[in-house]
């Protein structure tokens, strides 16, 4: 009796996931995935690799956020710590300091931030949000936390003011009242300034919300309150009455003091500025309309747009600065938003690219009663942050060290590379620095607070972003920072579109015809490949030298006619049908190559964009080597590209869409393969064609001409040569050579008709055969309809021709994907849409075993489709370098097919030891470098596999992940070793095989927000965290994994969020982040002098504690505001304490409480001592009073 190995059965059970799916070794893998038996060969293969990764290696946490804060609303600056805070409409706060000091924190409520106030040089920040809540943030830790919150229940917050070195916060409300909050305890004081007491009793109208609060620089006991309707009240806090009132006809937007406290300036809704003197409050001391037209004397100036904010800053050695936003004349409606700087008699208007949200003047001193000496203005725009240098007469801007221009054009795709070659960053920076903008201020960026060091993470990282305008940006992402290295503009390859030709040539997209859709980069060889929404692929090579040359272009006609397909019932579906006999014949036909494209005439064989035909100067950096464009077919635009891969070692690029696959030799600039997806399923001889049912031809519009009116035999069909206009040699190719298997290819619009073409089975076999195709469609014999591979295969709907930038999934639009899964893999489906197409969704070049039982590895191309099929294509390359430039490349189908559930997303290979195999590459060499030894130079290839892998009987593991499951196959036997059903109810958006702690693992991001990590090759679940629900297709389009436990995605249109799934990095994250607070001594106040102190202001000291404290002011109404302890406070720590660390936390809390009680006891003891001393003093006075008196004198 055969022994049964229970240990291996348990191994299979432990590899299953109860939550997200299960691992199995059944024959569900389709063709090539044999069942595993404990005593079989597959079981022996599974035991070879000892996996080192465990679940303890993984944990998810956010690391840092880069980019401009999305939808900013508020701005604050600490003049001592020199850090800047920006609040947003989504409740986020970004705190910026020196480069490397960049912190993001978020309000849990998500309410918009109305205002921010720093506790200057105390490491704290107060935020007021739109849900009428005040929050106190602790900035003395690397990740700020909320200490206290105060929720207003009956009034809405409109303005806040915190005086320097004060612990009492003034809060203005929409009802016109002013409340006072203790910052330390975050408790509301009983002292309230009611609006009806602030204004005159004779006033019959409500003054409106409070728009300004500030204490007098001259006297801290006086508070200036500005109301929206133009009323200003100078309130005496001690006497609780209005000392003076100011009225103006126009609404007030902002107020600012002169540092001496005798004058203040107001900005109004009519574009005017009023200067008021406290000695004569009846009318303005001065009224100006800076941008109004001058009128005759006695007439009021012409009204202008509102001045939203004004700042009045004085200088010791020059005229004061008056800086304001808005106020332009209404007759200049086309002018951009502006910031006006008035310095003496000079008026400078700085026009901005975006609307101004807020601005602040940066001054040397934090004291409001000293000369301010402004040196810069921080201007927060809707989509940018700029700082203006006020110390220079031309007011230049500072060069921004933060990556605030990620969204300069909308981001359409991203790529992330960790642990890349270290010299790349220096090389890219040296090229990109030459193209930086000039004219910046020569001074350093003034926001330089905080502290930051490199930390333990030292490997180089590069992020690449593709944009809607065709630009590509390379970023240095090392050590938690982000700095732009190099910018590439792909649109320079094409001719500029004329206004009248926009709809003629670019109907595939309505806007952004140059938008980057996919990018593929090989850091080692520095080969860069880009695909765009207009169905083009550009191959770039890196060079340090400038050249002027013509851009070589190829035009490919990719067409696939899909016949009616019927899906059989499950019981009648064979596991793997005979492809050569059962597949419907569907091939790409050659159409007319000289079809005229004009109004009323069907477009055919023309690209969406025009490549520059003249010599183009290419600066150092990435230079276009080849442009490949898909052309229109029978009046229909080409479909967008869904997959892209390039191999520098093979000199081949491959890309596919929902129509088919294209393989191009970019060394010889020829097309090797161009055919529909169904044609790829043929047997090893693709020239063998089956009869096809006749199909109705599309009605050709008048104006189309045929190249050949003579009938063409069915067995002789023409195809265009990829070497049209280039190659001059003629040689007969082998039957398996598919370089000419394409519908139509044009280069430079040169079409030549050469005689002497060889035909085998109705197809050209000569590598240099040229097209002489007719414009007619040929009919074939009718055949019965046949099925596809398996039961219930879903349709792949034809992609829409109009590009949608919100399309995030690599295969099709959101609607098509949703439809695909609504009808997913059900065996009850009996038919498929007639227009369904199978898209190429994944491509991968690797040295592998192309066929079953191969003894040696060879160049292969893995092709994955939207129906879960994987095809292996063998590439026969010339043996020597010299022949590689002259001899053709053979593209041979291996006949190997693998299948999975859902569209294929990614491939990878591992050797027999479990080490991840990298695709071979060519070592970079400057293509434009010339020297004496140029003739002897040879291509240097790195194959990335050991010699033992080529030995007979050796094998490798192939990892394939689709939208539903992952499988591991052993090659060349094509045995399915492991299967893991990742998800049943959702689908995977992004999957990548990455290296973690020198071991490989599979990382997946699911549409339901889960991030999952699986070990390799066993596919054991290591991590499954519900991280981020898919709320925006932008996340799916930009989410990407990389090595060393790193990942990123575009969290908003302007921000990149980086995260880690490494436990080690989560433990060390505190060491990598910058410190927001550094101990700095507060600058001393200037000595005002005896006379100025005597006559320049109030000599009385103002004790806010005595005035606003509970003993004097009483308690505020409990229904007015509610105190909420934050997670960073002691009360919050009590709620968070738990688990293993709970006891330690509780002990620490108890110690803090004990210290607090001891402090209270000490205060009570001190109070009792004071009381006892007072009693003793009174008793002594009483004794002295009656000491000498007789008894009868009482």
List the defining traits of the structure above.
mainly beta; disordered N terminus; 6-stranded antiparallel beta sheet
Give a written overview of the molecule.
Strands 1-58-57-56-52-53 form a six-stranded antiparallel β-sheet. Strands 34-35-36-40-38-45 form a six-stranded mixed β-sheet. Strands 7-8-9-10-66 form a five-stranded antiparallel β-sheet. It starts with 5 loop residues before the first helix and ends in a 9-residue tail after the last helix. It is elongated. Among the domains are: about 410-435 and about 450-495 and about 510-560 and about 605-635, no CATH class; about 640-680 and about 835-905, no CATH class. The chain is mainly beta and about 1200 residues long. It has 16 helices and 66 strands. The model is unreliable at about 1-20, about 25-40, about 500-505, about 565-600, about 685-835, about 945-955 and about 1130-1140 (pLDDT under 50). Helix 15 runs antiparallel to helix 16.
């Amino acid at each position: 009796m055969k022994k049964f190995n229970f240990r291996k059965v348990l191994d299979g059970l432990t590899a299953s996931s109860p939550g997200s799916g299960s691992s199995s070794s059944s024959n569900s893998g389709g063709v090539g995935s044999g069942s595993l038996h404990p005593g079989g060969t597959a079981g022996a293969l599974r035991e070879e690799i000892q996996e080192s990764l465990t679940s303890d290696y993984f944990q998810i946490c956010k690391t840092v956020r880069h980019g401009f804060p999305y939808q900013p609303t508020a701005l604050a600056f600490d003049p001592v710590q020199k850090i800047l805070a920006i609040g947003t409409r989504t409740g986020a706060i970004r705190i910026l300091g020196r480069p490397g000091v960049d912190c993001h924190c978020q309000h849990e409520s998500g309410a918009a931030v109305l205002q921010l106030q720093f506790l200057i040089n105390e490491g704290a920040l107060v935020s007021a949000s739109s849900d009428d809540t005040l929050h106190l943030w602790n900035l003395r830790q690397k990740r700020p936390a909320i200490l206290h919150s105060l929720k207003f229940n009956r009034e809405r917050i409109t303005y806040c003011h915190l005086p320097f070195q004060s612990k009492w916060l003034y809060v203005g409300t929409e009802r016109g009242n002013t409340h006072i909050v203790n910052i330390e305890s975050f408790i509301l004081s009983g002292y309230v300034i009611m609006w009806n007491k602030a204004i005159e009793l004779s006033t019959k109208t409500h003054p409106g919300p409070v728009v300004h609060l500030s204490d007098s620089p001259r006297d801290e006991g006086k508070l200036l309150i500005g109301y929206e309707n133009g009323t200003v009240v100078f309130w005496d806090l001690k006497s609780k009455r209005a000392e003076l009132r100011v009225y103006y006809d126009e609404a007030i937007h902002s107020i600012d003091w002169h540092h001496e406290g005798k004058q203040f300036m107001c900005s109004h809704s009519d574009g005017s500025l009023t200067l008021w003197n406290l000695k004569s409050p009846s009318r303005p001391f001065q009224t100006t309309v800076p941008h109004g037209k001058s009128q005759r004397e006695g007439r009021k100036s012409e009204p202008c747009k509102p001045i939203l904010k004004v700042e009045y800053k004085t200088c010791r050695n020059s005229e004061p600065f008056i800086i304001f936003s808005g106020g332009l004349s209404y007759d200049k409606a086309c002018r951009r938003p502006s910031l006006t700087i008035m310095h003496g008699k000079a008026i400078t208007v700085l026009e901005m690219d975006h609307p101004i949200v807020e601005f602040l003047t940066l001054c040397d001193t934090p004291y409001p009663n000293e000369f301010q000496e402004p040196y810069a203005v921080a201007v927060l725009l809707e989509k940018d942050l700029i700082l203006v240098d006020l110390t220079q007469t031309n007011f230049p801007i500072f060069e921004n060290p933060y990556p605030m221009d990620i969204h300069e054009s909308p981001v359409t795709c991203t790529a992330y590379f960790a642990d890349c070659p270290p010299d790349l960053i220096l090389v890219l920076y040296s090229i990109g620095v030459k193209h930086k903008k000039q004219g910046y201020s020569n001074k350093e960026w003034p926001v330089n607070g905080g502290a930051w060091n490199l930390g333990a993470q030292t490997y180089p990282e590069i992020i690449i972003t593709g944009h809607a305008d065709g630009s590509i940006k390379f970023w240095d992402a090392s050590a938690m920072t982000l700095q732009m290295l190099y910018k590439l503009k792909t649109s320079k390859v094409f001719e500029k579109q004329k206004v009248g030709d926009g709809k003629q040539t670019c109907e595939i997209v309505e806007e952004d015809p140059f938008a980057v859709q996919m990018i593929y980069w090989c850091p080692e060889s520095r080969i860069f490949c880009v695909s765009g929404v207009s169905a083009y692929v550009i191959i770039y090579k890196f060079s340090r030298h400038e050249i002027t040359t013509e851009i070589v272009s190829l035009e490919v006609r990719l067409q696939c006619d899909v016949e009616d397909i019927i899906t059989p019932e499950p019981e009648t579906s064979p596991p793997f049908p005979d492809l050569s006999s059962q597949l419907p014949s569907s091939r790409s036909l050659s159409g007319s190559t000289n079809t005229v494209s004009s109004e009323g005439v069907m477009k055919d064989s023309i690209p969406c964009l025009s490549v520059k035909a003249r010599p183009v100067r290419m600066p150092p950096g990435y230079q276009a080597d080849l442009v490949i464009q898909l052309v229109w077919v029978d009046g229909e635009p080409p479909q967008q590209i869904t997959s892209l891969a390039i191999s520098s070692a093979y000199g081949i690029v491959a890309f596919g869409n929902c129509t088919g696959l294209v393989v191009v030799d970019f060394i010889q600039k020829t097309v090797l393969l161009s055919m529909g997806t169904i044609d790829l399923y043929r047997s090893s001889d693709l020239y063998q064609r089956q009869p096809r049912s006749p199909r109705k031809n599309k009605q050709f519009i008048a104006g189309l001409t045929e190249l050949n009116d003579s009938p063409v035999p069915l067995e002789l069909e023409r195809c265009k040569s990829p070497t049209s206009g280039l190659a001059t040699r003629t040689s007969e190719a082998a039957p398996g050579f598919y370089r000419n298997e394409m519908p139509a290819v044009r280069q430079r619009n040169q079409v030549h008709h050469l005689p002497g073409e060889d035909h085998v089975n109705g197809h050209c076999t000569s590598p240099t055969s040229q097209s002489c195709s007719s414009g007619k469609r040929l009919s074939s014999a009718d055949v019965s309809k046949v099925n596809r591979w398996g039961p219930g295969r879903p349709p792949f709907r034809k992609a829409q021709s109009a590009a949608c930038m919100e399309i995030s999934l690599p295969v099709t639009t959101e609607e098509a994907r949703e439809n695909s899964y609504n009808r997913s893999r059900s065996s009850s489906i009996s038919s498929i849409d007639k227009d369904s197409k199978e898209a190429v969704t994944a491509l991968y070049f690797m040295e592998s075993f192309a066929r079953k039982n191969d003894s040696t590895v060879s160049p292969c191309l893995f092709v994955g489709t939207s129906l879960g099929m994987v095809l292996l294509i063998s590439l026969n390359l010339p043996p020597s370098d010299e022949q590689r430039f002259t001899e053709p490349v053979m593209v041979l189908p291996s006949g190997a097919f693998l299948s999975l559930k859902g569209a294929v997303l990614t491939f990878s290979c591992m050797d027999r030891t479990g080490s991840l195999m990298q695709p071979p590459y060519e070592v970079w060499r400057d293509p434009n470098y010339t020297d004496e030894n140029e003739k002897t130079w040879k291509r240097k290839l790195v194959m990335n596999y050991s010699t033992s892998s080529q030995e007979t009987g050796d094998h490798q593991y192939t990892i394939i992940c689709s939208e539903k499951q992952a499988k591991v196959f052993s090659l060349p036997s094509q045995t399915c070793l492991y299967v893991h059903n990742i998800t049943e109810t959702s689908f995977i958006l992004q999957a990548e095989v990455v290296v973690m702690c020198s071991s490989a693992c599979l990382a997946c991001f699911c549409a339901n927000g889960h991030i999952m990590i699986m070990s390799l090759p066993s596919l054991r679940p290591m991590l499954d965290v519900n991280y981020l629900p898919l709320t925006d297709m932008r996340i799916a389009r930009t989410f990407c994994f990389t090595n060393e436990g790193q990942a990123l995605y575009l969290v908003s249109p302007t921000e990149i969020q980086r995260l880690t799934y490494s436990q080690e990095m989560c433990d060390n994250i505190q060491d990598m982040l910058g410190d927001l607070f550094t101990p700095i001594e507060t600058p001393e106040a200037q000595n005002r002098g005896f006379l100025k102190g005597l006559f320049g202001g109030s000599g009385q000291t103002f004790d806010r504690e005595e005035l606003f404290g509970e003993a004097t002011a009483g308690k505020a109404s409990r229904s007015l505001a509610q105190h909420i302890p934050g997670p960073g406070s002691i009360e919050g720590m009590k709620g968070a304490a738990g688990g293993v660390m709970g006891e330690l936390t509780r002990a620490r809390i108890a110690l803090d409480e004990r210290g607090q009680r001891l402090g209270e006891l000490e205060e009570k003891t001190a109070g009792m001592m004071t009381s006892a001393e007072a009693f003793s003093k009174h008793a002594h006075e009483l004794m002295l009073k009656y000491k000498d008196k007789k008894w009868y004198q009482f």
